[in-house]
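User: I'm writing a short report section on ligand binding and want a predicted complex to refer to. Could you take this sequence and zinc ion and write out the structure as tokens? A short remark afterwards would be nice.
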Amino acid sequence: MYPFHWVPAAGQRHASLDAHPDGALAYPSGTGVRTLCGSQLTADNSKLAWLWETCAECNAEARRISAELPTSRGLRG
Ligand SMILES: [Zn+2]
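Assistant: Sure. The structure tokens for the complex follow:
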């Protein structure tokens, strides 16, 4: 698992390191999230929102984080 999650918000698909609430698979609409591009946004979990374009800054940051992860799972911490 990657430590970040994708979250549609404010017209783009962003990524966030915030944990999903209560084991949810996504941030419910209306959830406040801190995105990798440094914004505090409100999640929009509607079907249409997932078709929005990916935020370039979040995409770059997500790739950077992924590259730093160990190749095997479960060895963090
Ligand atoms: Zn972003």
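A remark for your report: The pocket of zinc ion is lined by residues 14, 35-37, 55, 57-58 (CB under 6 Å). The mean pLDDT is 90.
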